[in-house]
Write a structure and sequence with these properties.
The chain is 38% helix and 16% strand. By secondary structure, it is of the alpha/beta class. It folds into three domains: 32-165 and 395-500, no CATH class; 170-250 and 262-371, no CATH class; 553-767, no CATH class. The chain has a seven-stranded parallel sheet, with helices on both faces. A four-stranded antiparallel sheet has the order 16-23-18-21. The longest helix is centred in the middle third of the chain and has 23 residues, at 314-336. It comes from Mycoplasmopsis bovis (strain ATCC 25523 / DSM 22781 / NCTC 10131 / PG45) (Mycoplasma bovis).
Length: 768
């Protein structure tokens, strides 16, 4: 994933176009790379190169893709937008389509070139990619929301890939240090004169000490993250992605985003004190902050004197001297509060660093874990489809980012993101693929074509990270839209991705909270909607997505049409569907995707506690009490916010019948911050018959009813059973709360009206 260094018009739609294109001609067994390229390549080499990622595509269920396209046909649903930080030379893209479309949508801007955008584009479209018919609209930009609007409003693009993300805190500090002006750079490059000459640093220790100082500096950045998160722009990043997600939902734009590569920023080396257990750092056998700092000063001066001997090449010297300056800035500020003010702003950057507390390894683990999961969660929004990374064995990679606990479906699904070299053991079991890759590697090492093209092929064979697998999902969506000749909604795409996916191979634990020890391990746990925390619902299959669509079994409803049974009951459950299962099956799953124009809180402007325009003692007598209840809740729990309220939930009664006996299981799915809920059941008894009833649970309504009744009980000194305060049935049947029953009924009526005006739901039930 590329790091992003910076943080409603009426859409213009185009008339449907369907066209068939010819294949470019070959001359003397040579072809152009694409119609706009002047470079020729041997036809046999070309056919070999475009098969490089075929094993990955096959594992994603793309089985109808020709290994070498013999004809092309495109329509308006083939449009794909790509937003990247850098540009690239499109003349090296591989496509024999005589009508191949690659359009830069901000051609007046000049951006530096890299191979990243080339790899992303190649995976989505071109003869190399999943949808050779794709028309690519490419935007190199550091203004994401403006780029999305440009692609949508001016080019009619509704499918956009973003293999990029915000700069992590450590990298932000690194860039800020590198951007210091010459005068200041000179000061941090000058020697220390207040160090202890008795601390001996030997040249043989330099490499190991440099490693320890780097780990320490990086650990300090993440350990102090909570106190410095706004300095790193955390709220700005979160607001940016919220704006992007809301714009996507409002306009039906499918944005596919890399989950990120930040997960291994916090390493296991930071988790204990082994890297600090050096003779130079000890005072009377104990790790000493003072000795570490004095040792660093001695180390710094020594390295400055011997840098040409320590790092013989200019490239090594430049890298390590910059790293040394970065470490110096962090340690000077954290240990002595001297010298640098972060980005020339009057902030408290690193001032609250407590070294004694830092030495408590367990406490440090919690701080580091909270820091990295909070940072990774900033770019999650329900309006953006996030993709995680697995290796060839369908196991989570150590670098792939994921959200903290109870924070939605992030990532939603996963695809393949490891290096080909790491995947070779499984990938090359096929003789065909083994032979093909041997020939590709020979080609890359040869000098058959110019250096720039060979460099791009070398880059893409070693390509890895979330930037690699997000375009795989984008390519699948583009391909299925092309085949169906239909623009799919965000909800359609989520439903088919989740319903077609196969879970990662790692066995997940129950709904537990993960901790530092599991950050970069293969460990996973379940979220409350049966997604796994690191890989989501798993790896989707293109052929299965198409089967789901073609089956005609996707159910789309307006929830208010299901009825009003929940209004008069002591619950918030409404029957969604009920069925006896007559087909043969082993696994049963039901996936649901919710869509709303507004949440209940937005509909009633519950954010406006003091001047709410809907307050009226004549019409909405419940509303003033609910607003007071929200205020009361916030006073008790400062971390409470509207975003943590579940949108909805699913409860399922699964019945087993055998002989004269019946058994019931209660299944459920209730993850906050997500529109996707998923329930499943494994049939253990092949001789029994089964039936199920799915209930739509209005969890958002339930939360507000509990808030209201809890507040009314507090206000009227009604003592409640502490063990039942989260049980709505307990509230609704409590005799002392009986007088407020009208408030409850009114709120439920208003919620039904909200459903009628704002909410849609679609689902798919799968038996296999």
């Amino acid at each position: 994933m590329k790091r992003l260094n910076k943080l409603v018009l009426s859409p213009l739609f185009f008339a449907p176009v369907f066209s068939v294109s010819a294949v470019l001609p070959a001359t003397n067994n040579q072809v152009k790379l694409n119609k706009d390229s002047s470079e020729l390549i041997n036809w046999d080499d070309y056919k070999r190169l475009v098969k490089m990622y075929t094993p990955y595509y096959s594992k994603l269920g793309v089985w109808d893709r020709e290994w070498m396209p013999t004809n092309y046909s495109s329509n308006k649903y083939d449009k794909v937008g790509i937003i990247e930080v850098d540009d690239f030379d499109s003349s090296h893209l591989l496509s024999q389509n005589s009508s191949f479309v690659f359009k830069r949508t901000n051609s007046k801007e000049i951006y530096r070139k890299s191979n990243h955008g080339y790899a992303v584009t190649s995976i989505i479209g071109t003869d190399f990619g999943i949808n050779p018919n794709a028309s690519i609209y490419y935007e190199a930009s550091d203004n994401l929301i403006e780029s999305i609007k440009n692609l949508y409003n001016n080019y009619g693009v509704r499918l956009i890939n973003m293999s990029l993300g915000p700069v992590d805190p450590y990298y932000q500090v690194k860039k800020a240090v590198q951007n210091l002006n010459d005068s200041y750079f000179g000061s941090i490059g000058s020697k220390y004169y207040d160090f202890d000459v008795k601390i001996k640093i030997y040249p043989k220790d330099i490499k190991e000490l440099m490693r320890s100082f780097k780990i320490l500096a990086k650990a300090i950045i993440y350990y102090t993250y909570k106190n410095n998160k706004q300095i790193y722009g955390a709220s700005g990043i979160q607001n940016l992605y919220k704006t992007i997600g809301e714009y996507a939902l409002q306009n039906g734009i499918k944005i596919i985003q890399s989950s990120g590569n930040n997960n291994d920023e916090v390493s296991e080396y930071m988790a204990n004190n082994e890297f600090l257990n050096k003779p130079q750092f000890l005072e009377n056998g104990r790790i000493s902050k003072d000795k570490i700092y004095r040792a660093f000063k001695s180390f710094f001066n020594l390295v400055k004197n011997w840098q040409n001997d320590v790092w013989p090449t200019e490239e090594e010297r430049n890298y390590n001297i910059k790293l040394l300056y970065l470490i110096r800035v962090i340690l000077d500020k954290a240990f002595d509060d001297v010298r640098w003010i972060y980005e020339n702003k009057d902030t408290n950057w690193l001032k609250k660093f407590d070294f004694d507390a830092f030495l408590d390894a367990d406490f440090r683990k919690r701080k580091l874990f909270d820091a990295i999961t909070d940072w990774q969660s900033l770019i999650y929004h329900e309006g953006i489809i996030s993709v995680g990374a697995v290796n060839w064995k369908n196991i989570a990679t150590n670098f792939s980012s994921y959200a903290k606990n109870y924070y939605g479906s992030y990532p939603l699904v996963s695809a393949y993101g490891d290096k080909l070299n790491n995947d070779k053991a499984g990938l090359l079991k096929s003789y065909y693929h083994k032979n093909n890759y041997n020939e590709i590697e020979k080609y890359i090492k040869s000098s058959k074509n110019n250096k720039e093209f060979i460099d791009k092929m070398s880059y893409i064979i070693n390509f890895n990270g979330t930037s690699k697998f997000a375009p795989m999902i984008t390519g699948i969506i583009s391909r299925i839209q092309s085949k169906l000749q239909q623009e799919l909604s965000i909800e359609d795409v989520k439903l088919m991705l989740v319903s077609s996916a196969t879970y990662s191979k790692t066995k997940a634990s129950g709904y537990s909270s993960s901790s530092f020890s599991e950050i970069t391990s293969t460990y996973e746990h379940w979220r409350r909607n049966h997604a796994k925390n690191k890989t989501g619902f798993g790896i989707p299959k293109y052929f299965k997505m198409k089967q789901i669509w073609d089956s005609g079994n996707i159910r789309r409803v307006r929830p208010h049409e299901l009825g009003k049974d929940f209004i008069d009951s002591a619950s918030v459950l409404q029957i969604y569907d009920s069925k006896y299962i007559n087909e043969k099956w082993k696994y049963w799953t039901s996936t649901f995707v919710w869509k709303h124009k507004k949440s209940f809180a937005e509909y009633w402007k519950l954010y406006e506690l003091n001047n709410n325009p809907y307050v009226s003692w004549f019409r909405n007598k419940w509303l003033p009490h609910l607003l007071k209840a929200i205020e009361y809740k916030k006073s008790k729990d400062p971390d409470w916010n509207f975003d943590n309220i579940p949108i909805y939930a699913i409860e399922t009664d699964m019945y087993k019948y055998k002989n004269i006996f019946a058994r019931r299981w209660i299944l459920g799915s209730q993850e906050p911050r997500t529109s996707v809920q998923h329930v499943y059941f494994y049939k253990k008894d092949p001789e029994a018959t089964y039936s199920y009833t799915n209930y739509l649970k209005y969890a958002e309504l339930e939360e507000y009813l509990i808030l209201l009744l809890d507040y009314l009980a507090y206000k009227n000194n009604i003592k409640l059973d502490e063990n039942k305060v989260k049980d709505l049935y307990y509230y609704l049947t409590h005799p002392l709360l009986e007088e407020y029953k009208n408030y409850v009924t009114d709120m439920k009526q208003k919620y039904w009206k909200h459903l009628k005006e704002n909410v849609w739901l679609e689902s798919y039930t799968n038996l296999f």
